[in-house]
Design goal:
The protein is α+β, with helices and mostly antiparallel strands. It is about 40% helix and about 25% strand. The strands form three sheets. Strands 4-6-2-7 form a four-stranded antiparallel sheet, covered by helices on one side. It has a two-stranded antiparallel ribbon with strand order 1-8. The chain has a two-stranded antiparallel sheet with strand order 3-5.
Length: about 210
């Protein structure tokens, strides 16, 4: 791994007016859920349009009130997250989205509230460990390639205390955080051997 992604996360509250689903004409509605949906789609579009591949956005949690079939939603709350390799990439997405979200809310007669949950900067891995891990893999005849991690890891916090490096083991189909996640035993064994040889080589390199 060359670096661990930065993560920005916030809670967004879209407030409108709960009203009867049958007696309220479409032009009279202040539907929080419909407004929130448009705001979410604007966020997705900005992330898709960003020129960097390693910019991704997710809405992963939604609550809707009063959440009844015959009542226009009065308030929708959702968690929004953007991940990017560089701080300025996150900032660009959030600033552009903020302008669009405010415009959508105003046009629909809604109010918009935002609360910061997390703003974690990206964390580069130590060049010494990147070089050493790649060298030991090559010595064992194992092919590798360098990439940034788009998932968060404890190593991002350890890197503020000491040098940190990471090895990734291939996951079949690239699947993670789901029941289908699986890595082959032979790939795990190879990673273990690279780690072992890297620790031994690091001991020699750092010994006085």
């Amino acid at each position: 791994m060359t670096a661990i992604t930065g993560i920005y996360r916030e809670e967004v509250t879209v407030s409108g007016e709960a009203n009867h689903a049958g007696t309220t004409l479409m032009e009279d509605r202040k539907d929080a859920l419909m407004g929130a949906s448009e705001i979410m789609l604007a966020f997705e579009q900005l992330c898709r349009e960003h020129p960097a591949d390693e910019v991704v956005g997710t809405v992963g949690r939604i609550s809707n009130e009063p959440n009844a079939a015959n009542i226009i939603p009065g308030q929708t709350v959702f968690h929004l997250e953007v991940r990017a390799a560089q701080q300025e990439q996150k900032r660009w997405v959030m600033e552009a989205w903020g302008v669009q979200a405010a415009s959508i809310a105003k046009r629909r007669g809604l109010s918009l509230g935002r609360r910061l949950i997390l703003d974690q900067p990206s964390q580069p891995m130590a060049q010494l460990l990147i070089r050493l891990l790649a060298a030991q893999a090559g010595r064992l005849g194992i092919k590798t390639y360098a990439l940034g991690s788009m998932a968060g890891h404890d190593a991002a916090h350890m890197a503020s205390l000491t040098s940190a490096g990471m090895l990734f083991v291939p996951s079949l189909g690239g699947k993670s955080h789901c029941p289908d996640e699986e890595s082959r035993i032979e790939d795990i064994e190879q990673a273990g051997n690279v780690l072992l040889q890297s620790i031994l080589a690091l001991d020699v390199e750092l010994s006085p």
